Amino acid sequence: MDSFFQLEILVNVMTAAFLGGIIGWEREASHISAGLRTHMLIAASAATIVSLGFVLIGQYETLLGDAVRGDPVKLFEAIVVGVGFIGGGIIFRDKDNDHVRNLTTAASILVTAGIGIAVALHQFYFATGLTVLVFVINHVLYQVEKKYIR
């Protein structure tokens, strides 16, 4: 793997971390436990796993030809399982009022992994648009909900 390609992967991972950081910043500003660093690391991890998975598949196909078949969907499955484990760890129910807490943050973590995957697949416009959408859902709609519904 040449240096330029490695640099491209690194830039993609950094881009994913930046976009995840936007969502994490909003969560951090809302005083949620899974904030800036967590979201940055989730997005960067997803981009890293997808990027290196494609590198691995490419290297084995070069060496072994048709004897190796890579299934990129398995990478997505692994990411979703890992992120689901993390998300499940932050969701809890209050004993006093039976209220579920941090469900939105768990969903934000899952979609942040999707942003990392999108960046690794060079879907930059989609990843950026999805980041904006999640920010609007988490911040703007929360303000509307707080003012008019609660």
UniProtKB/TrEMBL annotation:
Cross-referenced InterPro entries: MgtC/SapB/SrpB/YhiD_fam, MgtC_SapB_SrpB_YhiD_N
Membrane-related topology note: Multi-pass membrane protein
Domain spans labelled MgtC/SapB/SrpB/YhiD N-terminal: 14-146
Location(s) in or outside the cell: Cell membrane
Domain of life according to the entry: Bacteria
Family per record: Belongs to the MgtC/SapB family.
Protein name per the record: MgtC/SapB/SrpB/YhiD N-terminal domain-containing protein
Species assigned in the record: Candidatus Taylorbacteria bacterium RIFCSPLOWO2_12_FULL_43_20
